[in-house]
Amino acid sequence: MLNIRFGEEKDYIQLAELKWLHMKEDDMDYNETNLDGVDKETFMGEYVSFLKNESNYKIFVAEDSGIIVSAMFLYVIPKLPKPNRKSESIAYLTSVYTLKNYRNKSIGTQLLTFIKAHALKEKCELLFVWPSSKSVSWYEKNGFKNENEILECILMDE
User: Fold this and answer.
1) Number of H helices and number of E strands within the chain?
2) Do residues 76 and 58 make contact, with C-beta atoms less than 8 angstroms apart?
3) How far apart are CA 47 and CA 49, in angstroms?
4) Which residues have CB under 8 Å from 154's CB, separation 6+?
5) Cα(89)–Cα(56) distance, rounded to whole angstroms?
6) Rounded to two decimals, what is the model's pTM?
7) What SS3 class is residue 64?
8) Which is the most buried residue in 10, 67, 118, 156, by most CB within 10 A?
9) What is the chain's pLDDT, residue by residue, as a tens digit (158 residues)?
10) Measured between alpha carbons, how far is residue 144 from residues 3, 39, 91 in Å?
11) Contacts 24+ apart (CB under 8 A), 34-42
12) CB 82: neighbour CB atoms within 10 A?
């Protein structure tokens, strides 16, 4: 049975494993080099440590029989107060990943619906994401639009 909930510290190792799988998949699908020269155990430790120390990310998970099958992270950015403003923040959705065997079963959509409801309750004005080319249509089906112009100034290559 699928359970959608907030992520907890007990999930951090599974979340690190999901991130590793996500990067491995990106390396294969997009000819990237995320894992070149990276020791998995070292990365897992760094990832878990980051989650323990970085409280600004809200973690959302979908689990099936205790196994996290999908995860999404939300970074909430508070807005400065303004007269008559109803919203209090905007949020960046990142590290969206669902295990291959669980895709196309509406799990990601259910998890995103949970996140959107939570964000609305918290007076979040909008969610934004930098999607991969393969995921654009999924985001569009889930209410995301390519309407706002954003300007960026790249300070460092990844």
Assistant:
1) 4, 5
2) yes
3) 5
4) none
5) 13
6) 0.91
7) strand
8) 118
9) 899 999 999 999 999 999 999 999 999 988 999 999 999 999 999 999 999 998 889 999 999 999 999 999 999 999 998 898 888 999 999 999 999 999 999 999 999 999 999 999 999 999 999 998 889 999 999 999 988 777 788 888 76
10) 24, 36, 13
11) none
12) 8
Task: Locate 77 and state its tokens.
Answer: 């950015």
Distance of alpha carbon 4 from the chain centroid: 14
Question: In the block, which residue shows the tokens 């007076």?
Answer: 123
Contacts for 103 with CB less than 8 Å, ≥ 6 apart: none
The correct answer on CATH 3.40.630.30 for the domain covering 2-141 is yes
Nearest to 18, CA basis, from 93, 78, 72: 72
68: which 2 tokens? 């996290």
How is the chain split into domains, by residue range?
2-141
Residue with tokens 């950015």: 77
Tokens of 113: 């619906």
